[in-house]
What we know:
Layout lengths: L18 H4 L21 H5 L20 E11 L2 E12 L4 E12 L12 E6 L9 E7 L14
Parallel strand pairs: 3-5
Antiparallel strand pairs: 1-2, 1-4, 2-3, 4-5
Amino acid sequence: MAEQTEKAFQSQAGIFQNPKLRGKKTTSVKRWYRDVGLGFKTPREAIEGHYIDKKCPFTSATVNIRGRILSGVVTSNKMKRTIIIRREYLHYIPKYNRYEKRHKNLAAHLSPAFVGVEPGDVVTVGQCRPLSKTVRFNVLKVQKQIVKGANKSFAKF
């Protein structure tokens, strides 16, 4: 495993890494990955990469995607492996027969399989078990945004 950045040694559960007992020397290390289903493809970095992330839905057996599938615009990527996405919607006011703009911010886990996610990108997230105090969603797909500066603007309409 090339990318050991934590103090404790990181390894995938269920993958045996002792080359002495395997008998032969191999240069490629076994990697476990899976398809999360629901029509989402496993990223190439999750299959060929060397990162270890116990909260990644593509390389961890303990995180399942179930429940809601949502999309939003990335607002912040300042945290380690966590992003804030902004979901915008219209709320109807019956008295005035009009709509008002509202938004919600949502924290989501960003797997190292998605490289170069910037504020303004559109992401699709799927609900999973609680990963921390505020994180209950995992990023499944990233669509790069060409227009920059869409940090606080109402982008859907």
